[in-house]
Amino acid sequence: MLDAKRLFPAEPTTRAIAERLYETVRNLPIISPHGHTDPRWFAENRPFPNPTELFLQPDHYVFRMLYSQGVRMESLGIPQEDGKQNANPREAWRVFARHYYLFRGTPTRLWLDYAFENLFGLTERLSADNADEFYEAIAKKLATPEFLPRALFERFNIEVLATTDAAVDSLEQHKAIKASGWKGRVLPTFRPDAVVDAEYLGFQENLKKLGEVSGEDVSSWTGYLAALRSRRAYFKANGATATDHGHLTALTADLPLAEAARLYQRIYTGKMQAGDVEMFQAQMLTEMAGMSVEDGLTMQLHPGSVRNYNTAVYEKFGRDKGADIPSPTEYVRALRPLLNKYGNEPNLTLILFTLDETAFSRELAPMAGHFPSVKLGPPWWFLDSPEGMMRFREAATETAGFYNTVGFNDDTRAFLSIPARHDVARRVDCAFLARLLAERRLDEAEAFEVAQDLTVNLVRKAYKL
Q: Which candidate among 107, 111, 150, 337 keeps its CA 20 to 30 Å from the CA of 198?
């Protein structure tokens, strides 16, 4: 199924250059600084239950496409809020196989084919006719020691993998990984959205929990900030090198102390006025940047997703079930309060992501090409395709260069897709560099050096790994 020259330029001379570049980076270690895999997998190191729970149920890229064509999520066994998960795993797999043609031309197809062939030796295309054969072959291997989570982590040559964890998380699984003596580096990432977004489900309960786990009185603005500083320190002590912020917009604010305190009181008591929720999140992005200046944690901002857009899906299946839709995002004016206050600080690294491609060349690349604190995150989510990655390099490099970017993030819940996603990114970067070399815009030594930097060096530096 997999052509060795996939994603390389069609023109023979440039393709040959891309192949040579790729050979120097294909076997470099994987550094995965931002993702959503479950740390419990590595703490407990138990076999994955079955192919459906491994490939379908955690991966919204997969069931989102199926849902768009009328496949009921219940038939795939997607967990529901009421605890129901009625579909038989094998039957769910058959539904998936019957609809595998839907993924033609998508990055999901590349990732799945890569896993099927390289991990399970399945070289036919998945279909209704061979669905059971695939299921049985995968299930058989999942029962072997070589397919335990830690063994796969090592087989994938993962140098470090970061999860994304709520601010109030005990990090029990991360502690268990460390206590086990296993050498794999699985690090937490501080994600405070649930205690910053007043519209987040269970927000008041989350604030109460924040006070309990931090030992701070969160009824006051100063106590609330102290609680967040305490949790950041806790995460850092347990290996975290970064924070992550998933706001709807990139809006930031720098309110006077008294005004910020009054705003927090309205948020804390639930007596919000119009605009308070957005303004509070804007203020908190600036506060978090200040805390990153203090503690050195790299700050990531992922704006622009209207989450849980499909209310019926959200109510039945909960968050992160494929019903998030990109939205236009403005950065220049939105980030000015934060950048005017902290953008010149040498101890701040602010990595900006977008789901709005128009922002790359118009706003983000010029900002990263000026502020020493700002770096560009790679194409994310709906843009993490070969075409999206190439458009990113073309739009951003002319203004920000390569060295104001941070390599590649796989951003996945689907563990087996990690090596496939990184392989795609490496191939696309080598294709882009091959074109620059063929056009004599880089010399050969530079192209090979940049390939190494894009694969491992920039991500290590940006995330302090």
A: 337
**Strand residues in 18-99 grouped as ranges (E):** 30-32
Contact 182, 42 (CB under 8 A): yes
Structure-token pair, residue 42:
């590595």
Dihedral of alpha carbons 395, 430, 463, 203, sign: positive
Alpha-carbon distance of 294 to 350, in angstroms, equals 14
DSSP for residue 103? G
169 contacts 239 by C-beta, under 8 angstroms: no
Domain ranges of the chain: 12-46+149-462, 47-147
pLDDT in tens, 103-126: 999 999 999 999 999 999 999 999
DSSP H/E element including 186: strand 186-187
Q: Is 60 helix (H, G, I), strand (E, B) or coil?
A: helix
Whole-angstrom distance between the N-terminal and C-terminal Cα of the chain? 35
Could you tell me which residues come within 8 angstroms of residue 312 by beta carbon, excluding any fewer than 6 positions away?
none
Q: Whole-number mean pLDDT of the chain?
A: 97
Higher pLDDT, 320 or 70: 70
**157-177 tens-digit pLDDT:** 999 999 999 999 999 999 999
Dist. CA 383–CA 169, nearest whole Å: 30
Looking at domain 47-147, its CATH architecture is Orthogonal Bundle (1.10)
Sorting pLDDT into bands at 50, 70 and 90, what band is 69? very high
Q: How many CA atoms lie within 13 A of 340 on its CB side?
A: 10
Give the relative orientation of helices 276-295 and 257-269 as an angle to the nearest 10 degrees.
120
- The CATH number of the structural domain formed by 12-46+149-462 is 3.20.20.140
User: How much is the pLDDT for 180?
Assistant: 97
Q: Which residues, at least 6 apart from 58, have a Cβ–Cβ distance to it below 8 Å? A: 413, 414, 415
Contacts of 57 (CB under 8 A, 6+ apart): 63, 76, 77, 78, 79
Helical (H) or strand (E) element with 336: helix 332-342
Q: What does the alpha-carbon distance between residue 17 and residue 449 come to, in Å, rounded to a whole number?
A: 14
